[in-house]
Amino acid sequence: MKLIFVALDLRDHPSSIGPSLKIKQQCNAFEEHGFDVYELMVENRFLYIRRKDHKEKIYSFKKKCLLKQSDNPILRRFKFLLRMSKILDILVDFIKKEDINITYVRNLLPWNPISLRFIKQVKKLKNVLVLDVPTYPYKDELSNINRFVDEMFNRFVGKYVDIIVTPSDEKEIYGVKSLKVTNGIEVNRFKVKNSIKKVERLDLIGVANVSRWHGYDRVIRGIYEYNKNFPKSKVYFHIVGNGKELYNLKKLTVDLKLEDFVKFHGFKVGDKLDRLFDLCDIAIGSLGMHRIGLRKSSVLKVREYCARGIPFVLSSDDEDFENFEFMLKVPANESPIDIDEILNFYKEIKEKDYVKLMRNYAMKNLSWKSKLKRLVDEIKNLM
After folding, report:
1. Both 138 and 221 in a single domain?
2. Do 213 and 310 reside in the same domain of the chain?
3. pTM higher than 0.85, yes or no?
4. What pLDDT, on a 0 to 100 scale, did the predictor assign at position 195?
5. In this protein, which residues make up the domain named Glycosyl transferase family (predicted)?
6. Are 373 and 292 within one domain?
7. What value does the mean pLDDT take over residues 33-53?
8. Are the beta carbons of 311 and 282 closer than 8 angstroms?
9. How far apart are CA 43 and CA 11, in angstroms?
């Protein structure tokens, strides 16, 4: 069985580090299930197909199609549509040439005539077409114009899709029965944290391409409220990563005079990131999913936290962590995070062997291979 994984994320852009990792792990899991997997990889200048450890360049974009930071929004949108049309036309030819029989597509938002034409052409090739909808509902993530375009064309999507997978509880999307698949990880990729003993100090860590739905401002404002009482224990917040919201978080930190307590480390990977996890005691998951209309989530980062063995804080519901002993659930609202509550939570669990227990839980429940088993069975039933 030959499967091609289609995602248009720009792999050489910093914002795509998380999605790229997820895609590669999903591809590896499909291979473990016996599929011959082709992974589309889009960069600003080139188009590649990865098959196992071999990466082949299949197209070079013309200069007029290259995206630049200086592009105004209208020009950037025009280039995006030009690139999308070219990429999807090349893919249809590639699917024919390689006799691929399963096409797995990450949601092509906003749906438009180009993306609709692609799934229609793929369906004509008698492919099993799987559509991955990572967020639903997603309208709050789109600009007004993109929402308008999407609403014009998404009504036709269901005609060409065989299976929809989503981490949401929606029973049906685009008129197609959906299969719930929450996010998984490759557990062995993540180093188990070493714990550092401290006295009257707690270190929090948040790792993300920082956006408003991460809600890190709630932690900063929580530390501000906590410090008003001149507490004995010092609490520090380490923010790791870049992103659109970083400027606002830095400004808030300065405005509240918390430069000694909130540390911005920028983007970190490898040993440098591992050392930061070793330093820290509690990780911060997404605390602002309600800002984009979501009360339930399946956030990859908290799965990484679990694999590393660091307890974490979350505000949205996540079915993989219902009644999970080493997660602190906080309200999904705009209130500052109660730092005393985090301290009490850590006090209750710190004498337990939580690192080992969390790692074992991740191995058993959070791997991509186990997560994709139901989808694989559905695909095989359609072959």
Report:
1. no
2. yes
3. no
4. 87
5. 196-315
6. no
7. 96
8. yes
9. 5
Residues 6+ apart with CB under 8 A from 302: 283, 285, 286, 312, 314, 318, 321, 327
Shared-domain flag, residues 117 and 201: no
Same domain? For 206 and 121 the reply is no
Question: Are residue 167 and residue 228 in the same domain, yes or no?
Answer: no
Number of domains in the chain: 2
Three-state SS for 281-340 is CEEECCCCHHHHCCCECCCHHHHHHHHHCCCEEECCECHHHCCCCCEEECCCCCCCCCHH
**Whole-number Å distance between alpha carbons of 205 and 371:** 27
When pLDDT is averaged across residues 351-373 and rounded to a whole number, the result is 94
Distance in angstroms (rounded) separating the CA atoms of residues 32 and 98: 21
CA distance 95 to 249: 45
The helix (H) or strand (E) run that includes residue 224 is helix 216-227
Strand order, beta sheet including 36-42: 54-60, 46-51, 36-42, 2-6, 102-106, 128-132, 163-166, 176-180, 172-173
Nearest to 258 by CA among 334, 339, 196: 339
Sheet holding 201-207, edge to edge: 262-266, 234-240, 201-207, 282-284, 312-314, 327-329
Residue 65's alpha-carbon distances to 59, 60, 194, 279, in angstroms, are 12, 10, 47, 44
What six digits make up the tokens of 328?
A: 């602190």
What pLDDT does residue 139 have? 87
Q: In the structure encoding, which two tokens stand for residue 210, read together?
A: 């920082």
325/307 Cα distance (integer angstroms): 15
Q: Please tell me whether residues 210 and 169 are part of one structural domain.
A: no
36 sits in which H/E element: strand 36-42
CA distance 229 to 224: 10
Containing domain of residue 290, as a range?
Answer: 188-365
Residues 136 and 201 in one domain: no
Give the Å distances, CA to CA, from 141 to 41, 325, 380: 23, 32, 33
pLDDT in tens, 200-258: 999 999 999 999 999 999 999 999 999 999 999 999 999 999 999 999 999 999 999 99
- Yes or no: say if 338 and 222 are a contact pair by the CB < 8 Å rule: yes
Give the model's pLDDT for residue 183: 85
